[in-house]
Specification:
elongated, alpha+beta, disordered N terminus, 12 helices, four-stranded antiparallel beta sheet
C-alpha cells in the first residue's frame, strides 16, 4: 500500500521543458520589450551568438545594447542556472519519501531466522501536499528572482550606455576645444616674442590650452572605462569588441512623460514587491504546517515479514507491522512554532517596509526625471541658443575689428563651459529616465535583492495573524 501510494504521487512531479523560463520571458517581453535565452547547449550558444553578431554590425543603440547583454551576459546565464536548480528543489520536495528496505538473517546450531522490513515515513507522506505547495511557492519566487536579475542587468546596461555615449560626446567637444586653444596659445607665444603681448596674457592663453589638454585626457579615459564596463555587461570578447557607439547622446523628447499614478504603477509592477508578497504567503503556509505537526515529528510505519526454523522443525512464517513515533515529553514543538511565527512577522514587516520604500522611490525617481528634463531642456532651448547668438555677434565685431582675437577666444571658453554643462545635463536626463523605469518595474539597487526571509525556506515557518 505504501509503495503504490508513493508511485501514484511521484507521477505528478516532472521537469518543465524550459526550466521555468516562461515567466522570465514574459516579464522581459512585456516590461522592456526584449527577448531572453537560456543557453544550455552548443547549438543554443551558436544561435544566440549569431543573433549577437548581427546586432553588432550596426551602430549600437541603447535597445540593441540591452538585447545583446540579455543574450550574452554569463552572469545572467548563471542566474538562469539558479532557476533551473530551484526547479530541481521543487521536484525533490514534490516526491514522496523513498521507503527503506531492510533484511537480516541470523543462524546457528541448525536454526535460522530471516526478517524483512519495508519502512516508510508516514508523516512525510501525509504532509507531502502541503510541502509540495510550499515548494511551488518557492519556485515561483525563483522565477521572479530570475526576472528581476534580467531587469537589473538591463538597467545597468542602459545607464552604462548613456555614460559611454556622453563620454564620447565630451571627447569630441574637448578635441575641438583643444585645437582652438592650441592655435591661441601659439599665437600668444608669437605675440609675446614680438613684445605685443604681456606675460600675464600669454600665461592665460597657455593655461587654457594646458587645462583643456588635461580635460581631454580625462574625458578619453572616462570614455574608455565606460566602454569597457559596457563590454563587460554585454558579455563580449574577441572580435565582438569592435562595436560602434554613437558620438552624441539622443535628442531630448519633445515633452516629458506624465505619470500621475506613478505610485500605483510601481506597487503593481515592482517584481521585488511581488517576491516579498509570495515569500509572506509561503511563510504563512509553513506556519500552518508547523502548527499541524508540532507534537508529531517522527512517524514511521514498517511492514515486517519474518521466517524462522529451529533444528529440523518446519519453517515458521510471521507477518506484522511496526510503528515508531516520538513522544513529545520535553519538546512539544513550542520552539519550532515560535521560530515560524517570528519568521512570518519578519516577512510581514519587511514586506511593509518594501511597500513604503517602493512608493517613495517611485515619487523620487519621477521628480528627478522631471527636474532633469527641465534642466536639460533649459540648456537646449535657452542657454545654448543665447550662446550661439553671442558667438555670432562677437565674430561680427571681430570682423569689423571692434574687438581683438583674445576677446573672441574668451567668449569661446565661456561657450565651451556651457556646452559641457549641456552635455552633462542631457546625460543626467537619460540616466534619470532609466532610473524611472527601474523604479516602476524593479531591477535597481542591491537593496532590491531577496530579503533575509527568503533563505529561511525549507524549514517550516510563518506566523501569527495581523
Amino acid at each position: 500500500m505504501l509503495l503504490s501510494t508513493g508511485v501514484g504521487l511521484s507521477g505528478c512531479a516532472s521537469f518543465s521543458p524550459d526550466s521555468g523560463m516562461t515567466v522570465v520571458s514574459d516579464v522581459a517581453s512585456q516590461t522592456i520589450g526584449k527577448d531572453v535565452a537560456f543557453v544550455r547547449s552548443a547549438d543554443g550558444a551558436e544561435r544566440t551568438g549569431g543573433v549577437v553578431r548581427r546586432l553588432l554590425r550596426r551602430p549600437l543603440t541603447v535597445d540593441t545594447a540591452v538585447q545583446v547583454a540579455l543574450l550574452s551576459n554569463k552572469g545572467l546565464q548563471a542566474a538562469y542556472n539558479e532557476l533551473a536548480l530551484a526547479e530541481t528543489d521543487l521536484i525533490e520536495q514534490s516526491l514522496p519519501p523513498n521507503p527503506v528496505f531492510a533484511i537480516s538473517r541470523i543462524s546457528g546450531n541448525g536454526s535460522y531466522e530471516i526478517e524483512r522490513q519495508v519502512v516508510g515515513d508516514i508523516l512525510a507522506l501525509a504532509t507531502l501536499p502541503f510541502r509540495s505547495e510550499i515548494a511551488r511557492e518557492r519556485f515561483r519566487q525563483a522565477q521572479l528572482r530570475a526576472a528581476l536579475e534580467t531587469l537589473r542587468l538591463a538597467a545597468q546596461v542602459r545607464r552604462t550606455y548613456f555614460r559611454s555615449v556622453a563620454a564620447n560626446e565630451m571627447v569630441g567637444l574637448l578635441t575641438d576645444a583643444k585645437s582652438t586653444a592650441e592655435s591661441t596659445a601659439q599665437l600668444a607665444k608669437k605675440r609675446g616674442e614680438t613684445g605685443s603681448l604681456n606675460k600675464l596674457d600669454q600665461a592665460r592663453e597657455q593655461v587654457f590650452y594646458a587645462e583643456t589638454t588635461a580635460d581631454l585626457a580625462t574625458a578619453r579615459q572616462e570614455a574608455t572605462s565606460a566602454r569597457e564596463q559596457l563590454t563587460r555587461l554585454m558579455g563580449l570578447w574577441g572580435e565582438d569588441l569592435d562595436f560602434r557607439l554613437p558620438n552624441r547622446l539622443p535628442t531630448l523628447p519633445r515633452r516629458p512623460r506624465s505619470l500621475p499614478s506613478i505610485e500605483a504603477d510601481a506597487v503593481g509592477h515592482r517584481i521585488d514587491l511581488q517576491i516579498a508578497r509570495m515569500e509572506l504567503a509561503a511563510l504563512e503556509k509553513s506556519l500552518g504546517l508547523t502548527q499541524a505537526t508540532r507534537f508529531v515529528t517522527l512517524l514511521d510505519l514498517a511492514g515486517v515479514s519474518k521466517r524462522s526454523r529451529e533444528d529440523e522443525g518446519p519453517p515458521i512464517r510471521e507477518r506484522g507491522f511496526d510503528i515508531e513515533f516520538q513522544i513529545p515529553i520535553f519538546d512539544g514543538g513550542e520552539v519550532r512554532v515560535r521560530q515560524a511565527a517570528e519568521r512570518y512577522n519578519q516577512g510581514f514587516n519587511l514586506l511593509t517596509e518594501r511597500a513604503v520604500n517602493v512608493r517613495s522611490e517611485a515619487r523620487d525617481a519621477y521628480r528627478v526625471y522631471r527636474s532633469a528634463y527641465d534642466i536639460a531642456s533649459h540648456y537646449q532651448r535657452e542657454i545654448l541658443p543665447l550662446r550661439q547668438i553671442i558667438t555670432e555677434e562677437m565674430q561680427l565685431r571681430f570682423s569689423s575689428m571692434q574687438i581683438d582675437v583674445f576677446a573672441l577666444l574668451t567668449e569661446a571658453r565661456q561657450r565651451l563651459a556651457s556646452l559641457r554643462a549641456a552635455i552633462n545635463a542631457k546625460r543626467a536626463f537619460w540616466l534619470a529616465q532609466s532610473d524611472l523605469q527601474t523604479a516602476v518595474n524593479g531591477g535597481g539597487s542591491e537593496a532590491a535583492r531577496e530579503t533575509p526571509t527568503t533563505t529561511a525556506a525549507a524549514a517550516p515557518a510563518a506566523g501569527v495573524g495581523h
